[in-house]
Every structure is written in structure tokens, then in C-alpha cells.
């Protein structure tokens, strides 16, 4: 039984790694994110920039309600892109729940699932004990808008919904807490 679990974990890890390489091969790495905002529209293939307004979106959550990014204005917001086949996403979703539990007054979490069914996402919500919004992006429209090329990817927005930090890959809870505290002090 233990050996079977080990084999299943290794296969899941290889699938996740293969998906990441496929995403990179298909779309490449984003352009460097600058620490200042440039004026003008984004060009094709150009990453979102620190200081720029986050692209607005509206998605259904796993409970069947519509959630708009604009609803999060007024507090720090973390947009996290994830999928059930992504091993690091599982731990990160749990860490995000701890963050939400410890600082509900400072941060709102919007976890955008990339292309999976509502039933699958709802099962994960229950199994992991997630209380924040798990949003469904079945056509990957928002993922493309935010130019997601690997999982997990997260965007930290300030209370004006401007991008203040981008995390490619898993981010430590301690780092998120420090960055959110720093944003709170800026207000």
C-alpha cells in the first residue's frame, strides 16, 4: 500500500512537471517585470507590470456565485492561479487558508482554478477545508489575461487593485504575511 502511494505521488509529480514544461514550451517565460509602471497598453507577450492596474475579471466560484475582482477593492487582494494536478498548489492553498484565517481584515484571497470542473474544485474545497473563494476559469480566459505560464502563480494587489508583487511558483506563508503587512503600512 505504501509503495503504491509512492508510485502514485511520483506519477502525479511527473504530470505536474510535464504540464509546467508544456506551458513554458508553448508560451515562454514572461518579460521581466519592472519595479515601476510604464504608460501605455501591454504589448503582445509582455507581462503585467508592478504598479499597473490589475485587469478586471468576473468568474463563478465553486458555490455557484459570481465574484468580480472589483468587489475586493479597499483591501489587499491575492489572486492565486492553481490546479488540482499541481502538487505545490495543495500546500499553498492550505497556507493561504491560514493567512485568510489570521488576517481576514487585511487580505482577500481569490484562488483561480485553471480549467477544471466545478465538481472537482468543490471536492478540493471540502477536502482541504478552504473557506475563501475558489474561482472557476474553465476557458482559461483570466489565466491568459494574467499571462499565467506555470503553477502556482500569484499576484498581490494593493487596496486600489494595483499589482504590487508577483510570485512565480510557490510562495512561503511568511513572505506573504510580510508583504501584506508592508502594504497595510503604506495605506
Entry keywords:
187 residues; alpha/beta; Glutaredoxin
Give structural notes.
It is globular and about 55 Å long. The protein has one domain: Glutaredoxin. Helix content is 39%, strand content 20%. With 187 residues, it is α/β, with parallel strands linked by helices. It has helices spanning 2-27, 87-102, 118-128, 141-145, 173-186, and strands at residues 58-61, 66-68, 76-82, 107-114, 133-137, 153-157, 163-168. The longest helix is centred in the first third of the chain and has 26 residues, at 2-27. Mean pLDDT is 86; it is low at 29-45.
Number of discrete helical segments: 5
CATH architecture: 3-Layer(aba) Sandwich
Q: Please identify the top-level CATH class.
A: Alpha Beta
Strand content: 15-25%
Q: How many β-strand runs? A: 7
Number of domains: 1
Instruction: Give the helix/strand class.
Output: alpha/beta
Gross morphology: globular
Order of helices and strands: HEEEHEHEHEEH
Outline the low-pLDDT stretches.
Answer: 29-45
Which fold name corresponds to the CATH topology? Glutaredoxin
How would you sum up the major sheet? 7 strands, mixed
Strand order of the largest sheet: 2-1-5-4-3-6-7
What Rg, in angstroms, do the CA atoms define? 16 Å
Average predicted confidence as pLDDT:
86
CATH homologous superfamily descriptor: Glutaredoxin
Distance between the termini: 53 Å
Query: What helical percentage do the residues reach?
Result: 25-40%
